[in-house]
Each structure stands twice: as C-alpha cells, then as structure tokens.
Amino acid sequence: MGSKILVAYATLSGSTTQVAQAIGETLGQEGTQVDVHQIKEVGDISLYDAVVVGGPLIMGWHREAVRFVKKHQGVLSQMPVAYFITALNLTQTSQESIHEVPIYCDPYLPKPPQNPGKLSLRERYATPSNYLSPVLKKTPKVKPVSVAFFGGTLVYTELNFLHMLFVMLIIGARPGDFRDWEAIRAWGTSLRSALAEKA
Ligand SMILES: Cc1cc2nc3c(=O)[nH]c(=O)nc-3n(C[C@H](O)[C@H](O)[C@H](O)COP(=O)(O)O)c2cc1C
Fold first, then answer.
1. For the residues of 52-85, what is the DSSP string, one character each?
2. pLDDT tens sequence across 68-91
3. Ligand 1 lined by 87 (C-beta under 6 Å)
4. Residue 192: how many CB atoms within 10 A of its CB?
5. Which residue minimizes the CA distance to atom 29 of ligand 1?
6. Over the chain, what is the mean pLDDT?
7. pTM (two decimals)
8. Cβ(15) to ligand 1 under 6 A?
9. What's residue 65's pLDDT?
10. Is 70 exceeded by the pLDDT of residue 146?
11. Domain residue spans of the chain
12. How many whole angstroms from 5 Cα to the centroid of ligand 1?
C-alpha cells in the first residue's frame, strides 16, 4: 500500500466525522501515514498515494463529497480510491457491484423490500444503485476499488425544519445511532489490500 493516505469526508450534523476517524485508524495500523480531514480543509491531494472519500446521504451523496470527486477527478483517476457513505435507509438488492464498482453494505443497514418483484417508490429511491450511479456517471474516470454503505445517525433536534420533514416523509427513518463499528473497521481492514493491489 502507498505510504500516505487521505481520508476526506463531508458531514452535516457531525456523526460521519467519527466514521472517517475509525477508517483512518484502521488504515493506519501498518505504519501507513493517514490524514483524516474534512473536505473543506483539503488542498493538494497529489501528495497522497491513495484517497478515501466519505460523507452522508443528504438527498443524494453529500454535495461536498461529489464536488470533491469532480474537482479532483484527474488526480483521483490515477490513484487507488474508495468511497464510504453513511445512510439511514437502504433497500436490500442482490447487486454486488454498480458499474463494475464493488459495493459493501453494513449487514444491519439494508432492508428487504416488501415485494421484491415490485419495489415501492421509497424502496426504489433507496437502492444502492439509485444513490451511487449519478456519482459514478458524473466522474466516469474515477473507479473506486470499493464503495461502502454504513448506518448513520439521526438526531432530530440537530436538524432544521425542512431537513426534519424530508427525513420523516421521504426517508421514513427513526432517530438513533446506527453506526456499526465492527462493519466500519472490517471494511477499513479489507481496504488495505484493495488499495495496495490498485497502487
Ligand atoms: C436532509 C437530510 C437528507 C437525508 N437524506 C438521506 C437519504 O436520501 N438516504 C438515507 O439513507 N439517509 C438520508 N439522510 C440520513 C443521513 O444520511 C444520516 O443521518 C447521516 O448519518 C448524517 O450524517 P452526519 O451526522 O455526518 O451529517 C438524510 C438526512 C438529512 C438530514
């Protein structure tokens, strides 16, 4: 694996920060230097050997994460890259990859659809493909070695009124902390070899 890795993340309410830090700690265990920074603080990424980009779903992947990948797509297409996404609502599908990009799901996050033959509007909205395809299409040269979906956190009192309405009506999520540290660290561990193979 490269000797210097950047974990760059976006957040709305703050809970993705600890997810990024846990991934950074896992990646850093074999003497690799890992910098974990909020996307706003990141400058030149060409100093790194690999980059992990993360952020929550906020009506699609957090726009700072998408903008970051778009802005740096030239450099990111030349190095090993992985994405992680925190979420509250994911529909279970049999897909293991999207546009040839392998996906990993926290085992507690995906919910089986009520009728697998005919997904409801909400279930279709929450498929990994519906969330991820627009990002992969906007930045076709960047091919992540893996994209992980992890459970996130919802605290209604941290949200403004419109955000609260969206989460209640469209996402239908219940409040709580659904971060699964075991799944997060397992993915971080698997990423060490996946990034090294691509380097
Ligand atoms: C306005 C808003 C929109 C959201 N949209 C989605 C969504 O489309 N799908 C989903 O699974 N979760 C959605 N969520 C849940 C967030 O992804 C989840 O709460 C995440 O853990 C927040 O991370 P943060 O604390 O780092 O901001 C949304 C949350 C908010 C506030």
1. EEEEEBSSSB-HHHHHHHHHTHHHHTTS-EEEEE
2. 999 999 999 999 999 999 999 999
3. yes
4. 18
5. 58
6. 94
7. 0.96
8. yes
9. 98
10. yes
11. 4-198
12. 26
